[in-house]
Amino acid sequence: MPRDGLHHTDRRRHHIRRIASGSRRRGYREYTLVLNYDDDGDGGDYKLTERYIGKADAVFVSEGDFSLHSSTPQDAAQRYLKLVPDHADRAADQATSSAEVRYFLVDSDSTLTLVGADLQRPDSLLNYTLTRK
Asked: What is the signed CA dihedral for 46, 87, 130, 109, rounded to 10 degrees?
């Protein structure tokens, strides 16, 4: 039984999308994150697609495992997701692989916010919140 609102009860799949705006010179980034939960509901597989919209459209795809964590150092009630790409497990250079790990704060059953490894919200005018579609 799902323990939180992140689970899509029919297929245990969560699909979110957000366009994060940037300056006109840098263009925009569109993020699409698909989470496929394991039976225990504490993690599973993910696919993150980043599409840079601007002068030279580019698409970057990351796939791997994610885990759901129940608290951050700043807030015991704040849940977050940790996304670890498949190739990071095999990387010889741990500094490189840890830089590719992504973190999302769970804001509600329909929104996540992309944050850094410190699990702090970005001090930026850009919007890093992904909304369930």
From this structure: 40
Classify 66 as helix, strand or coil: strand
SS3 string of 71-91? CCCCCCCCCEEEEEEHHHCCC
Q: Counting Cβ atoms within 10 Å, is residue 60 exposed (0-12), middle (13-18) or buried (19+)?
A: exposed
* Amino acid in position 74: Q
Q: Is 59 helix (H, G, I), strand (E, B) or coil?
A: strand
pLDDT per position as a tens digit, 36-49: 988 887 899 999 98
Query: 115 is written with which tokens?
Result: 């944050």
> What predicted TM-score, i.e. pTM, was given to this entire model?
0.73
Q: Where are the alpha helices (DSSP H) in the chain?
A: 94-99
